[in-house]
Every structure is written in structure tokens, then in C-alpha cells.
Amino acid sequence: MAVAALPRTMDALSRRAAMLRDSLRRSQGNTDGMVAILGSFDHRLSALEAAMRPTQVRTHAIRTAHENIDKTIKAADGILSQFDLARRAEATILRGPHEDLEGYLEAVDVLKGIVRFFSSNKNFKSSETILNHVNNLLAKSTLKIEEEFKQLMSTYSKPIEPDRLFDCLPKSLRPTKGDNEADGGSHPSKGLETAIYRTPTLVPPRVLPLMNDIAQQLVQAGNQQSCYKIYRDSRASALEVSLRKLGVEKLSKDDVQKMQWEALEAKIGNWIHFMRIAVKLLLAGERKICDQIFDGVNFNSGHCFAELTANSVITLFSFGDAVAKSKRSPEKLFVLLDMYEVMRELQPEIDEIFEGKPCTEMREAAASLTKRLAQTAQETFTDFEEAVEKDASKTIVQDGTVHPLTSYVINYVKFLFDYQSTLKLLFQEFDNSTEAESQLAAVTTRIMQALQNNLDGKSKQYKDPALTYLFLMNNIHYMVRSVRRSEAKDILGDDWIQRHRRIVQQNANQYKRVAWAKILQTLSVQGAGSTGDLSSSGVSRATIKERFKSFNMQFEELHAKQSQWIVPDQELRESLRLAVAEVLLPAYRSFIKRFGNLVENNKNPQKYVRYSPEAVDQLLGQFFEGQQWAEQKR
Questions:
Q1: How far is Cα 341 from Cα 57, in angstroms, rounded to an integer?
Q2: What are the φ and ψ backbone dihedral angles of 563, each rounded to 5 degrees?
Q3: What angle do CA 539, 542, 544 make, to 5 degrees?
């Protein structure tokens, strides 16, 4: 059955293939027809395009012509406007800058714009002629601007009177009426760091923008050197004269060395005051206007500022340098510390004012002066310590009171503690490894020990041993009392105070032993015999009489001598009298009570018992009063 059906299937497939071939032939015919139609359209369009091309060319030419005409008209208008601008600017330039400086500078800018315009339009046949004319005008304007800059700098570079500067100071530093100088050198200067200083107006603010514009014009015209010289010379002169009017003068080491101390001290006080005015007011003001006038200008303002301030800074620093290099002496220490302190105070401002590489020399000069003052102050410390220990003055205080050297050294140490913060900074300049407070304590201890060593030597000059001990007692007590009442107490410590109080007591005990041992021996019972012996022995009675006479004589000698001696401290004086009375009066009362009856029946008993115990006590109250008692007695 499968074989019988195969022919039918083949016939069906053949019919379908025939139908497909017929369909393809019809599609090919349609395609060929469409191609022919489209080819006809292409031919027609090409013909139309060829017909329109001449019209398109004429239209483009007309449009281009119009565009060129517009451009030419615009270029002509631009050129004519430049000619008009040049004519008006020329009139302004020829009039000069005196009447209207701002208008003049605007005219210069207009001329520069014209130069730029024609420089970029050199195909205009007259461009070179107009460029030459405008450049000649600019050259004339530069000379006139330079002259105007010179005139302005001269007008507004006047020295500042001292009164104007004083008005810019904090009230605490302004001079009072009748004073020539403000109190700038007195110590301490605490709180000055926060005081308000008002920078003076060196140039009116309204003029600064004009000066800036002129500087810009001069630099752009290639006249940097003229601008530099005019500004430097004008401002340098004003600054130097301002300082001279204030009282600043250049002094050498020899000048300083020849001065009397009072004159030098006054000049140092003034210098400290002048330094603050110079740095905080004048130099700060100069830096400010220099930065404003040359703001945005391609100009080496740092070098210019360094040069205009150089002479003034050298003059200011020369005095400090001369003092630091002059012969050292103890009284100079405190003014050296004042000078060092003000340099430390001003150093940050000096660094800010003289910032930048061109001003390196100024910053280094200030730092060097600060270091030199610190070095001299430290060396003066060492000198003072040695001078105290080696002081060989032959002056003997006859009354055993506090020696002038003691009061001088103690006052010196007290003053030092007014400078604690400054001293700590000074010590750190040379030794960062040790705490500043420890260094201050070590220095103070050495000075006090040097004084004590010297006093020990001076005490040996007395022939009377009792006065030796009284002298040491007075002087060491003065040291202890002064330390206890000052800031030195915190530095030297309680141990130092307690140790030296014991030394005071030891000397008081030694005085009492040496001065009163002999008279107490006279009142001693030993060797005077017993009461029974005395009643039966004329020799023993005679011995007692001699004892009374001896007591009277010794006490009168002691009174005559020791009422001239001085114990200046009232508490110590009363304490010492009490200590003497506590040993003398009981012994005297006991002696009178025991042996007084042996002389009472004599013809002249007051010859022997000349003083009652109460009278002795009263006379002891006159001891250690010095000249006061002597004058009362006279």
C-alpha cells in the first residue's frame, strides 16, 4: 500500500514547485518595472538641479557680499570709536594728573586698550601710525604718573609727632601731664601683652587705592626701579625722623660706658618704651601700608620694606647691643632683664612684621639681641654671686646691726623674684634639661650662701666676741625674716628657713654665754664662803664687798657698751633681753638675798648694792637701742 501511494505524493510536490517558479517570475517582472520608474525620476531630478545651480550661486554671492559689508561697517565703527577714545584720552593726558588723578589713570587704561586693539588689527593700513602716537602718549603719561607718585609720597610721608603716637598707646603707658616720657621702663610689665595698641594712620585710607593704581601703572610700564626708589626713600625718611622726634638716638658701647648710672638707667627705661612704640605702632604701620600700596602689583615689596626700615632698626637695636656689651655691674641686672623681657615680648610681632626671606636679617638681628641680653644677664648673675662672697669692704658696723651688704643683697634677691617668669625664660635660653624653677632655686641658694660666707668673715673683725655673735644673729635673722616675707620662701623652702632660724638661735646663745658669763661668775655662790664664815671673817666680808663692787662695775660697762649696740628687730630685741634677764635677775636676787645683810650695816651701803633687781631689769630695757638711747641719755 505504501508503494501505491508514492506516485500521488510526487505529483503533488511537482505541482507546488511549478507554482513557486511562476510566482518568482511575476515578482522579478514587478521589480524590473519599479527600477525603470525610479531611474526616470533620478534623470529628471538631475536635470532640475542643473537648471537651478546658477540661481544658487548668485544667491550665495549676494549673501556673502552683505555679510562682508556688515563686517566692514562694524570694523569701521570700531576703528572710528578707537580714534574717538584716543582723542579724548589724549586731551586728559595732556592736561596732566593733578586735577583728576583717577580720570587720568582711567585715560591711561583706555590708551592701553587702544594699543591692544590696533596690535591685533595690523592689517589696517594706518594702525602703525596710530600705535606710535598712542605709545608716545603712554610714555608721557608714565613720566607724569611717576612725578605724581613722587608728589603723593612726599605729601603723605610726613613724620608722626610723639603726641600722636602716645595717643595710640594703652592708657597705662601714656605719659601724664608734665612728663616728657611715658613710664615704659618701670617693672613689672605684666598685662602689657593684652593691652590694646592702635596702629596710627600713616597714609590716609582714601589715598591708598590711588597709590596702588599708580604703582601698578609704573610697574607695568617697566618703571619698577623708579617706583622702588621713590617709595623707599620717602617712607624711610619719615620713619627715621619720627623716631628722632620721639627721642631715639644711635649710641655706641663707648657712649654707654661713659654715662653716669642714673642717666643710663633713664635712657634704658626710654629705650624700652621706644621699642614698643617703634614695633607695635611705627613698623607695624609701615608694613600695613606697604602691603596695601603694592597689593596685586608684580613688585618686590619685601626687599623694599627691608631697605626702608634697615637704618631705623639698626638705630633701635644699637642701644640694646651697646648696653649688652658694656661693662657688667650688679645694678645693671634688672635693666638687662627689663630689656630682655621687652625683646621677648616683641619677638613674635617682629617675626610677623619682617616675614619673608628679604627680611631675614631683621629677624635674626632681633633674636641675636635677645640672646645677647640674656647672656649678659646670666653673666651678671655669676658676677654678683662672686662679688657678694668676695666683698672686701672694711666697713664695720660698730653697733652690730644689719650690715649694708646684707640689706643690699636681700633687696637684690627680692627684686629678682619680681622677675620670676622672665628669669625662668632666661634660664631656658641656655639649659633646657633642668626645670627653670630648680635653676632659680639653685642661683638664689648660692647667693644667700655667698652672703653668709662673707658675713662670717666680717664678723671676725670685731674685737669683742659678744658683738661678733650679735652681728651674726642680727644679719642671719634679717635674712630669714626677709625670706619668710617674700616669694623666696617658696623657692628656698621651709628646710632652709628652719636651718637658718637655728643658726640665729645658736648665735643668740653664744652672745649670752660670752657677754654675761663673767658677771654671772661674780654672782656665783662658789668661792664666796658660807654665811657662818662671813659672820666671823672680815676677809669674807671684804670678798662680798668686792663682789658687789665688781658686779656694779661690770654691769655699768655692759650697759654703757651694749645700750649702744642695736638689735633692729623689735621681737628679737625683746626676746634677747628676756633671755638675759632670765639668767641675770634670779642670780642677782639670790646674791642680794644671801649676802646683802653683810653690807647693809655699812656706812655707805648704796656703794655696794647700787642697783635693785628692779633697777637692773629697767636698765636691761635700754640694751640694744643704739643711738636712740644715747640721744635720750644726752
A1: 94
A2: -75, -15
A3: 115
pTM to 2 decimals?
0.73
Q: Grid coordinates representing 376?
A: 649678659
C-alpha cell at 291: 602691603
Residue 93 to residue 114: CA distance in whole angstroms: 14
pLDDT in tens, 108-137: 666 566 666 666 666 655 556 666 655 566
Nearest 5°: phi and psi at 331?
-70, -15
Establish how many alpha carbons lie within 13 A of residue 319's alpha carbon, considering only the half-sphere containing its beta carbon. Answer: 25
Cell of 370: 635677645
Count Cα atoms within 13 angstroms, Cβ side, for 366. Answer: 24
For 1, 331, 475, the CA distances from 451, given in Å and listed in that order, are 154, 17, 10
Contacts of 523 (CB under 8 A, 6+ apart): 547, 551, 587, 588, 590, 591
What secondary structure letter does DSSP report for 199? P
Q: Which three cell numbers stand for residue 414?
A: 627680692
What is the rounded distance in angstroms from the CA atom of residue 90 to the CA atom of residue 104? Answer: 10
Half-sphere exposure of 239 (CA within 13 A, CB side): 30
Dihedral sign for Cα atoms in the order 524, 527, 532, 538: negative
Cell readout for 552 is 656694779
